[in-house]
Design goal:
Layout: H1 4-12, E1 16-18, H2 20-29, H3 33-42, E2 44-49, E3 57-63, E4 69-76, E5 81-87
Length: 102
């Protein structure tokens, strides 16, 4: 299971890698790496995907630099955090707090 403290430590120590997929999606969605780091540093893990490969991953909910809610999927190998994707949660899919799907 991933601990938010480990993700924050990776951010603090600049041990973050962004996947090619994430790079494309973040650009399309106007989300910056600064937004992602802010989400990790101030947000919370709302889902764990322990069976993901090659490393477990999780969904983090937080606010980006603009104050808008962002969902970020990251994995962690115990040292490095890998950004898999990030998106603005759709209120038609997520309940008001963006933690629970409708």
């Amino acid at each position: 299971m991933i601990d938010i403290k480990d993700l924050r430590k990776s951010c603090d120590e600049n041990r973050v890698t962004i996947t090619q997929h994430a790079t494309l999606r973040l650009l399309e969605r106007g989300i910056t790496m600064s937004d992602i780091v802010t989400v990790i540093k101030t947000g919370e893990i709302i889902r764990q995907y322990e069976d993901d490969k090659p490393f477990p991953s999780c969904l983090v909910l937080g606010q980006g630099d603009t104050g808008l809610a962002i969902h970020t999927v990251v994995s962690h190998d115990g040292v490095i955090m890998y950004v898999i994707t990030g998106y603005y949660p759709d209120p038609n899919i997520w309940q008001g707090n963006f933690k629970i799907k409708k």
